[in-house]
Amino acid sequence: MSNIIYIGYDFKVTPLQPGVEILIAELGYAGFESFVETEDGVIAYIQKEEWNNEILNDVQILNSEEFKIDFTFNEIEQTNWNEEWEKNFNPIVVDDVCSVRAPFHEKPNTKYDIIIEPKMSFGTGHHETTHMMIQHILKNDFTNKSVLDMGCGTGVLAILAEIKGAKPIDAVDYDNWCYLNSIENVERNNCKNITVIEGDASVLKGKKYDIIIANINRNILLNDMEAYVSCLNKGGLLFLSGFYNDDIPVIQEVCEKYLLKFDEKLERNHWVALKFLN
Ligand SMILES: C[S@@+](CC[C@H](N)C(=O)[O-])C[C@H]1O[C@@H](n2cnc3c(N)ncnc32)[C@H](O)[C@@H]1O
């Protein structure tokens, strides 16, 4: 899967308000495959044969409704994604304990070392929400706990859960690219207790977990909360991220409706990651 050459569109978006990660997620749902954040916006890529009027329509709706974006299209000849990523992706270290790096970076001197081939999936640890979810996992006991990583992206959180002793672990993502990329990263990190599943909350029927980690976005979390709660064991933990400080009341209201007890908040650049007890 390495050194894929893409011929496609270079679609440059300038967000006029904060929320670039949500914009990236929305563009991802619309069909764009990869994103590079630049100083004046986002470059979103899509293969030429995938591009159609429906996607253009989705972008125009996004533009008019939520984001007030200013976008231009550029057809590009080809991109070597691994080279792009090598230019844009530096290792990160969370709380001096856990590093997240690409295979081409030198091995760091940290207790936990996660290797992620980022390619086109979200979850390199650079984003505030991933960073805070890593902090939550580091601070909590995962030994022998069954875990669900909902919206696993690159699989980074599931991999850390396994390193912290969790088993078994289900890592679920509805995006085929994330599903394939998570499988690759799970193997790369020699994880033995993670099952990667392609799907959405509908795959959770009949399952039970001690801990659920879900870093997605406000609307999907609200929509799927009932499914999460119904598969969370009594006494279990729920970690949620992918939303802003301002979204806390609505998230908390829904969690309390399901009798979850708020326990801890982490915050970085207005993004938050919450811990609830069942
Ligand atoms: C913000 S990323 C988080 C990735 C990774 N867990 C992390 O913390 O860096 C959200 C992920 O959720 C996935 N996703 C979005 N909606 C979903 C849904 N309804 N069911 C399953 N996965 C979903 C996206 O494909 C994306 O990979």
Automatic annotation (TrEMBL):
<dbReference type="GO" id="GO:0005737">
    <property type="term" value="C:cytoplasm"/>
</dbReference>
<keyword id="KW-0949">S-adenosyl-L-methionine</keyword>
<keyword id="KW-0687">Ribonucleoprotein</keyword>
<dbReference type="GO" id="GO:0008276">
    <property type="term" value="F:protein methyltransferase activity"/>
</dbReference>
<feature type="binding site">
    <location>
        <position position="215"/>
    </location>
    <ligand>
        <name>S-adenosyl-L-methionine</name>
    </ligand>
</feature>
<dbReference type="InterPro" id="IPR004498">
    <property type="entry name" value="Ribosomal_PrmA_MeTrfase"/>
</dbReference>
<keyword id="KW-0689">Ribosomal protein</keyword>
<feature type="binding site">
    <location>
        <position position="130"/>
    </location>
    <ligand>
        <name>S-adenosyl-L-methionine</name>
    </ligand>
</feature>
<feature type="binding site">
    <location>
        <position position="151"/>
    </location>
    <ligand>
        <name>S-adenosyl-L-methionine</name>
    </ligand>
</feature>
<keyword id="KW-0808">Transferase</keyword>
<dbReference type="GO" id="GO:0005840">
    <property type="term" value="C:ribosome"/>
</dbReference>
<dbReference type="InterPro" id="IPR029063">
    <property type="entry name" value="SAM-dependent_MTases_sf"/>
</dbReference>
<keyword id="KW-0963">Cytoplasm</keyword>
<dbReference type="GO" id="GO:0032259">
    <property type="term" value="P:methylation"/>
</dbReference>
<feature type="binding site">
    <location>
        <position position="173"/>
    </location>
    <ligand>
        <name>S-adenosyl-L-methionine</name>
    </ligand>
</feature>
<dbReference type="Pfam" id="PF06325">
    <property type="entry name" value="PrmA"/>
</dbReference>
<comment type="function">
    <text>Methylates ribosomal protein L11.</text>
</comment>
<keyword id="KW-0489">Methyltransferase</keyword>
<comment type="similarity">
    <text>Belongs to the methyltransferase superfamily. PrmA family.</text>
</comment>
<dbReference type="InterPro" id="IPR050078">
    <property type="entry name" value="Ribosomal_L11_MeTrfase_PrmA"/>
</dbReference>
<protein>
    <recommendedName>
        <fullName>Ribosomal protein L11 methyltransferase</fullName>
        <ecNumber>2.1.1.-</ecNumber>
    </recommendedName>
</protein>
